[in-house]
Write a structure and sequence with these properties.
Distance between the termini: 34 Å
Mean pLDDT: 91
Strand content: 35-45%
Structural class: alpha+beta
Helix content: 10-25%
Radius of gyration: 15 Å
Low-confidence stretches: none
Shape: globular
Largest sheet: 9 strands, mixed
CATH architecture: Alpha-Beta Complex
Number of helices: 3
Order of helices and strands: EEEEHEEEHHEE
CATH topology: Nucleoside Triphosphate Pyrophosphohydrolase
CATH superfamily: Nucleoside Triphosphate Pyrophosphohydrolase
CATH class: Alpha Beta
Number of strands: 9
Number of domains: 1
Amino acid sequence: MGNENTNWGQSVTAVVIKDNKVLLARHTYGGGKGKLIIPGGYVNIGETPQQALIREYMEETRIEIKPTNIIGIRFNMHDWYIAFRAEYVSGEPTSDHDENSEVLWMDIETAMSREDVPELTKKLIQSAISKENGLMNQEYQGSGKHAPYSLYCI
């Protein structure tokens, strides 16, 4: 889990779908303990949200992904959470035996009807399978000392 390099105010997740199945992980701690959720985690200092997402998926599931577009953003008074749609690249689902006890591909329809899949995960799956494109990554170089830049818009 986190360390001194963790930016506790920024977190990411992604819905990854392959062959009409969504990748889910059974959470082992906190309020989501025992629930099947979409993987994700905190952004490290000096890391972009996309880099954090790729790292988190590899650490937690052994699945390589490619983030494509933003399908949801959750803000509160404490932090923000960005949800991406991401493409499956390679790998076999494997639990990290730390943050999750199992990782599996589940039929989307089954996931949407299960009680052990939380409402937030269901809403993000629904957003990922929507016909809407969401916010798409646009090429943007920007200028200044805070590169790299990311711009997502319609």
